[in-house]
Amino acid sequence: MYLLLLILSRIISPQPPIVIAHDTTYITQPLRPNGLPDYEEYLLDLDRQGVTPDNNAAVLLWRALWPHYLDPPQYDAMRTELGLNEIPANHDRLELLYSKENEKRVNDWLRKQNLNPDVVNKDDAFIDRAQRPWMSQQLPPLADWLRTSQRPIDLLVEGSRRPRFYSPSPTVLEHRGFLLLTDMLPGQANVRQMSWALEARAMWNIGEGRPDDAWKDLLAIYRWAQLTTQGHTLIEQLIAMSVAAVACESTQALLGSDQLTDKLARQIESDLANQQFFSKVADRIDHYERLEALDVVIYAKRAGLAEAAGTPRLLGFDWSKIVPIDWNAALRKVNQHYDRLVDVTKMSNRQAQKKAFRRFEAELTAEANRARAPSYICAALFSRKLRGELVGSIIARFMIQDEAEKAVEMQDRANTDIELIRLAAAITVIRAEHGNYPATFNELVPGVVRQLPVDQYNAKPF
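RESULT FIELD:
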């Protein structure tokens, strides 16, 4: 009887409140009216620092692409936050390369040529041909599209020269107080769309014999990639890398052109030498991704673990809503997992890092699965802290997955692409000035580059 009463006391005892501290909630200010961290306001305050309508590239991005990915109720909040005097006019709006209007324009033209659009687009969409050098007579409907899109695309080139990029999530501006996990990033999605439009115009300029104009468009893509890295989310880093990949691939076409002058070849090499490498994956995991997971823990306290992390219910009940849990222990456990994840992400030895990722993921999965062990179930009956640590491991497993490792791999790949395109630009300088490519990379030093880069995958020269 005493044992039963002891177990019941452990199960039905009140839960301690969440402690606001670095090892639990990570931030201590600002707080919501309920005394819990306001992660959304914290991130907004970070992003707003030093941003003005005149230095913010997002202002021109939204002028060119408004209102793509925005719902009408979000217009006014976004306009006010960006400092726009008015909602952008339709004549500034860019019709997207892969828009329904453009597809109709292309398909109508194909039918006039007695071609079946379904057959033409079956294996390789007609619009995709704008990803390589082309002339107006080859893709007339796309040439017409670019002529009518000159103003908004010029706005995008102008915007790429601004130093800041702040495009907040409209769901954050609405102060819904829900989950960081559900925040939308329409401005960052627009950066992808923008890169395809700039690429299409650059390839058109190459085909039409305007290499200088082509490089202005491609350089704008590189700059937008760098601007996007200012965002605090991991997804923004991945978007930036994918945009840079578009620029690198298209630059190959320009460097292979016989239209390059000595001056332009030197300019391209110089501009590429000034492009920064991607390096913010670990920092974004350490901060935003961590806050995202802590936010889920706090939400689970209110809504239950099944609702927050999709865990199965026990006999139809969410056990986390029935038994008391030390939610501070859950928060500390999540922080511990992210501390270790960040340490692994920062490792410079790639082979050792891969092994460390495997160990981390295996141990995290094992911790999250402990609830099935009879010995653990018995111990958990008597310990709120143990139940809290289990909740922390379950949520960390749910949030982390293998995205950190994939992001690190993508960062390595993106930086290698930048190194390779720099080398391509350097040997193109030799070809433009002397008529032939160099026999070895050593001929690039010191006339074109100060030193040769090292392949980070094997720590040897390319």
